[in-house]
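Please produce the structure of this protein holding NAP.
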Amino acid sequence: MSVAKVGINGYGTIGKRVADAVRRQGDMEVAGVTKTRPTFEARVAAAKGFDIYVPPESVKPFADAGIEIAGTIGELYGKVDIMVDCTPGDVGERYKAEYSAAGIKAIFQGGEDHSLTGVSFNSTANYRESWGAQFSRVVSCNTTGLLRTLCPIDRAAKIRGAHVTIVRRAADPGDSKGGPVNGLEPSLKLPTHHGPDVQSVMPWLNITTMAVKASTTLMHLHAVAAELERDMDSSEALEILRGAPRVRMVSGKSGIKTTAEAMELARDLGRDRSDMYEIVVWEDGVKAVGNRLYFYQAVHQESDVVPENVDCIRSMCKLEEDASASMAMTDRALGISKG
Ligand SMILES: NC(=O)c1ccc[n+]([C@@H]2O[C@H](COP(=O)([O-])OP(=O)(O)OC[C@H]3O[C@@H](n4cnc5c(N)ncnc54)[C@H](OP(=O)(O)O)[C@@H]3O)[C@@H](O)[C@H]2O)c1
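Below is the modeled complex.
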């Protein structure tokens, strides 16, 4: 079996998780990660044995900090089949030109526009569309969450229209700059960009979204209302959601009433960084009335896109043709199971 050599550009919230996830797979390896600043994260990356590559202007600061580097970012390009670009949103365009010049493949994240790559990725919905592609984009955390549940529902009973209210976390847990610290902040530009982002993968889906930022860091919460082409009862909706890949059913009855307990479950499962890769759906919050379906789901924004990045590497590097087989490999390596 061929092994894909993967570089990770941007070793932050998403990048460091993707690096660890790639390292756990049998058919890909981490050739190096990049850092621009010699922060504690760079020291941890070095301690984990990742080769660190930096921009030319960072060579001296890293030497001054006593952190060993393997070379410059440009030198990393010569050692990889594919870069996973996890730099902050809107930085990708500059790097796309560099990846193009180096003749390598690259995956971008949801902070970039769909137009940067022309193809966006979700394992459940469109694994094959990135097959052999030079560039693709793993959609954002919220969009990944919506695709994981809406795609199986749409396949079972065509969605006529969906409206989702997103309660967004204000900042990631490791971020001391975000807000609001107190209060709820509605997105005033409506409908929000999340609907069109879902349509970058499911263009036929009639979906609108609104969003409110809340003073929490743990997870996003979605209140989903969908109108279907046919009637459905709650038990059928539950069966569809239970069978959906990377969806974890929980219940208020079992003590998971809030995102706090959902993340406590992730801690108890002993995952890397206590990550909850699955989209969490409340069993006792799924209700179908006639052709209307309602449910709540929670998204662990720091980690749900991580397995999709691994699958996207497999699709783009032509390592595995079958989406289910790739997802099974990824899930086994990351400890994701329906149990
Ligand atoms: N966090 C989330 O909730 C989330 C969820 C899904 C998708 N995303 C998307 O994933 C992408 C990355 O987000 P993130 O949350 O991981 O950001 P992040 O935590 O800020 O990490 C980005 C990293 O990129 C590095 N960086 C900054 N400027 C750079 C440059 N010019 N060249 C190379 N590296 C640079 C920074 O490391 P240095 O210290 O080395 O500068 C930083 O650690 C974005 O597109 C975002 O929209 C984020």
